[in-house]
Amino acid sequence: MDPIQSMGKMVLLLGVLLIVVGGLMLVAGKIPGIGKLPGDIFIQRGNFTFFFPVVSMILISVVLTLIINIFLRR
Known about the structure:
By secondary structure, this protein is α+β, with helices and mostly antiparallel strands. The protein has helices at 3-28, 54-71, and strands at residues 41-45, 48-52. The chain is built from two helices and two strands; from the N terminus they run αββα.
């Protein structure tokens, strides 16, 4: 296969992946509870705000792992 064609396919795949991830990021803000679970770190002092959604990331990781394993099982 021509290297230009394989590079073109890779760029198209990355573009589709970016569109999917962007869409998920838009929708994720509307899921109730995500980002406000017990264990998510939120510190606000004066002008400084720090937010690290530890438990939310673990929950999303487990759900995505289960979905991917179901669909890609051989």
